[in-house]
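Here is one chain, start to finish.
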Amino acid sequence: MGLSANAVSGEPTRMFSLEQGATAEQGSISIDLYDSVRNNQQIRTGIWGGEAVISQRGIGYKQVIIPDLAVYGQVAIDTADDADSHFFVGSSYTLMPSDNFAITGNIELGNTGVDNDVELGLGAGAYFTLPNAGKLNKIKLGGEFLFSTADNTGVGIQLGVRWLPRDNITVDLLIYNDDVSKTTDGALQTPAGIRATLSF
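Its structure:
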């Protein structure tokens, strides 16, 4: 199940890097078993009418405020010496012109904790679901454009495939991963990033 009129998703509500304008089904849980796409494994659960997110980078919450438009935020607090706390807030809108095509836009404001400056992040993505995938179940082709004003970042592009071999298993495979942090070299690779998520 993908996005629907009630803005609830049965697969993870994050694509490669961008949040989608939907939240997880109430009571559901998704766990990243492995993530080299952003090296930020997450647990997401549908709770309190929205979605709670626990990751290696903080704790957050996401809520749909009108159909297909979600707002979210995350905070990380670390009082250890030489450690950085941070926060960010954002919104995501997902539009589905057809059953097989979706476009998403993200905007985020936050503080990485390094220099206390408030940074702006923008993202846009487009995703096409292959019809008649047959025994392969569900396959989405996608591309994302990312931009950040944070220091030592720039414009990023991610191209890849989301495969749902079973309804509760999601595999994201990137063939091109040039993220805004420039920790990847942006070359075509097989794969350039992989994420495996189990939902139940």
